[in-house]
TrEMBL record:
Transmembrane segments: none
Region (Disordered): 1-27, 39-145
Protein name: Two-component fusion protein
Recorded coiled-coil stretches: 564-636
UniProt cross-references to Pfam families, sorted A to Z: FapA, FapA_N
Record field: compositional bias (Polar residues): 1-16
Organism: Candidatus Magnetoglobus multicellularis str. Araruama
InterPro entries: FapA, FapA_b_solenoid, FapA_N
Basic and acidic residues bias spans: 48-62
Organismal lineage: Bacteria, Pseudomonadati, Thermodesulfobacteriota, Desulfobacteria, Desulfobacterales
Biased composition regions of type Low complexity, renumbered to the chain: 115-124
Length: 695
């Protein structure tokens, strides 16, 4: 051990145990790659700055070297530590036989030759990357490509033979260089010889590390084919700027294939929903272009990239552009649209979805959260769902609208549901449901009209139709001498009638399901009654047991208090009372447990029966409530006939009904309430002459 001493790398303070004979020689640190002179005194060797190091004169007259700033990188590359450690030293002391001996002494030092861990730079132990170890260190970064670092003073023993034995093949894009062995290489060929050859061929960038070159020289089989020795850095193309539209710019999509259909039918009318935005919604965004990254070929020449193209975000009506012209927000509620003018795109927001012609196969069914304007006709077989609808004409289509429906022409054969008003020139063969007024100056023929407002047909006729208008009817004629009778209902809200109708349907279905369940499960008729009686017994018994449990602690305290009095008679009486209570308590507990067991058995037999009966009871309750709302509403809505109400016309109120036996002209029909001699309220449909305004 006396022949071995400790020295430290002046750069990273890594400790090494080195033979004394190596003192004064130059070595490379295995940890950080820094070259230093081996000294064993108390003062560690101070490395010379690269700029101050003597540079041996190159034997070659015009050597090709890497750029100065790349010859001495600030920190060693992660995967090239060994390479740099073995690279020739530029500050070798003259007269030294070999610096490799010192290097081997350091790099081959075993763990036992190194000082205690406290004197070493901390090292992270290797951790295997496994699914159970999510904190495993990341993979080593890929080798950073740099300019070739080489010893410009080095010269092969036989450079001519070396140059004749090797060749270099560079790809057309100059990003790859392959080494070709034309003649067998001398056994003593080193990586420095290969570096010399590359410099001569001016291949200076992206050269593989020294370890790979050594491996290549060792494995002769690799000499039989071109071997990749250098690889340039491909340029990264720039990302052009673009405008991203945050809505469907082509809402009239291809027809949608119907789901869960074995025949895989395609609904050619379904084109999806039209885009809709509200005030403040982001409708478009400009993404700036990103510059590319220049590359470098194997000769060290830069590969330039083009400049990134920048996009322009253009806006129009209904859209607000941000100060940096990057964001476009809606200023109004409506439909975002991408307009193209002179090959330039512009985003706008229009308050309504405007259809220039008809709703047909070209447009498909219309779904839009805002207003829809149809310049032409909503053709038969199509549907429109929107906020409000304006159209020239509606044929046998389905219309669902949150607001008003305004039709310049007629509604023919359509089903229209509106939470607003409905206006049309005439209505024929249609079904109209409205929460507001229904106006049809040209008449209502062969139709059903249900409105929570008023039905207004002042200049037309109501023929062979059913009209239910909560706030009354105003028309010229009802019926004719040849048409079937019409039925007009007033004072009843049709929305409540619809609820009654739906509840009756649901109730009938539930009762049918109950009967089917009883038949299939063979539930005895008296099981439900038995269960009800059982529950009636359980509830009071349960209360009694709970009360007894609550007083038991106090009984024990009372017994202790009586014992202290030493009154034998009182003590006996207290004990007797407590025993009686305890006996009754235990019997009640046993009885309660038995009854609960019986209840569970009956409930198991009944299965879903109690739940089904409860649902039926709930529906019956709701139905009764809605009927009471209708019955209690004493709305006195009139039917005003400006022309003639023909014979056989039926007029209904909440509690009364009238069928006209004769024609009546210019009359008002209304449900009124009379009190008879016995003070009973009687409801009748009465009529009186209609007084025209101004007469």
């Amino acid at each position: 051990m006396s022949n071995v001493k400790t020295t430290k790398c002046p750069g990273c303070q890594q400790s090494y145990r080195i033979p004394v004979s190596k003192e004064g020689k130059t070595a490379s640190c295995k940890k950080c790659g820094q070259k230093f002179k081996i000294q064993f005194d108390s003062t560690a060797a101070t490395p010379k700055k690269q700029d101050d190091q003597p540079r041996p004169t190159a034997k070659k007259e015009t050597p090709i070297s890497a750029p100065k700033e790349q010859k001495a990188p600030a920190s060693p590359e992660p995967e090239t530590t060994e390479t740099k450690s073995e690279s020739p030293s530029q500050d070798t002391v003259p007269g030294e036989s070999s610096e490799k001996e010192a290097y081997d002494s350091i790099t081959d030092a075993s763990t036992s030759d190194v000082t205690s861990p406290s004197e070493q730079a901390p090292e992270t132990p290797e951790t295997p990357e496994t699914p159970d170890n999510p904190e495993a260190p990341p993979e080593k970064p890929k080798e950073k490509k740099t300019m070739l670092e080489y010893d410009s003073s080095y010269r092969p023993l036989d450079p001519d033979t070396l140059m004749e034995s090797l060749d270099i093949v560079v790809s057309e894009d100059k990003l790859q260089a392959h080494l070709v062995v034309k003649k067998p290489l001398d056994r003593d060929t080193t990586y420095k010889d290969i570096h010399y050859f590359l410099v001569e061929k001016k291949v200076l960038f992206g050269v593989v590390d020294e370890g790979k070159i050594k491996n290549f020289l060792k494995k002769k089989l690799l000499h039989n084919r071109p071997w990749l020795i250098a690889e340039g850095k491909s340029p990264v193309e720039p990302t052009d700027g673009e405008v991203s539209y945050l809505f469907d710019i082509d809402p009239l999509k291809k027809p949608v294939q119907e789901e869960n259909d074995s025949k895989e039918r395609i609904d050619f009318k379904d084109r999806g929903e039209m885009p809709y935005v509200t005030i403040g919604d982001l409708v478009a965004e400009r993404k700036p272009g990103l510059p590319g990254v220049q590359g470098m070929d194997v000769y060290g020449a830069q590969i330039k990239t083009r400049k990134a193209k920048q996009a322009t975000l253009r806006t129009g009506e209904g859209v607000e552009l941000s100060y940096d012209k990057r964001l476009a927000n809606a200023k109004i509620n409506g439909m975002p649209v991408l307009q193209v003018e002179r090959n330039q795109e512009k985003v706008i927001v229009v308050p309504e979805y405007y259809i220039k012609s008809d709703v047909n196969m070209k447009t498909g069914n219309v779904k839009f959260k805002g207003p829809v304007v149809v310049k032409g006709t909503v053709e038969s077989g199509f549907s429109v769902t929107c906020a409000t609808l304006s159209a020239n004409e509606i044929m046998k289509a389905t219309i669902d609208v949150e607001g008003d429906v305004l039709v310049a022409g007629g509604i023919i054969g359509a089903t229209v549901r509106s939470k607003g008003k409905v206006e049309a020139k005439f209505i024929k063969g249609a079904t109209i449901e409205s929460f507001s007024n229904v106006t049809s100056p040209g008449g209502i023929i062969d139709s059903k009209v249900y409105t929570s407002g008023e039905c207004i047909v002042e200049k037309g006729k109501i023929l062979n139709s059913q009209v239910c208008a909560y706030q009354g009817v105003s028309t010229r004629d009802i019926g004719s001498h040849t048409s079937p009778e019409s039925t007009l209902t007033i004072g009843v809200d049709p929305s409540l009638l619809k609820q009654v109708s739906q509840l009756e349907v649901d109730l009938a279905q539930k009762k049918k399901d109950l009967e089917t369940f009883k038949e299939e499960n063979k539930v005895p008729e008296d099981v439900a009654e038995q269960l009800e009686q059982l529950i009636a017994k359980i509830d009071p018994l349960k209360d009694s047991v709970e009360k007894t449990e609550a007083i038991r602690p106090s009984l024990a305290q009372k017994l202790e208090a009586v014992k202290k009095k030493a009154n034998k008679k009182e003590l006996q009486k207290t004990i007797k009372t407590i025993k009686e209570i305890e006996t009754k308590y235990q019997a009640a507990k046993e009885n309660l447990a038995r009854l609960i067991q019986e209840r569970e058995k009956l409930e198991k037999e009944l299965g879903e029966l109690p739940q089904m009966e409860a649902e039926i009871t709930e529906l019956e309750k709701k139905l009764e409530e809605v009927k009471n709302l209708i019955s209690d509403d004493r709305q006195t809505a009139p039917i005003k006939v400006h022309g003639t109400a023909y014979r056989s016309t039926i007029i209904k109120g909440v509690h009364a009904e009238l069928e006209l036996r004769d024609d009546e002209k210019k009359a008002i029909f209304q449900e009124i309430y009379k009190v008879d001699e016995e003070d009973k309220v009687e409801s009748v449909i009465a009529s009186e002459p209609l007084k025209e305004k101004g007469k």
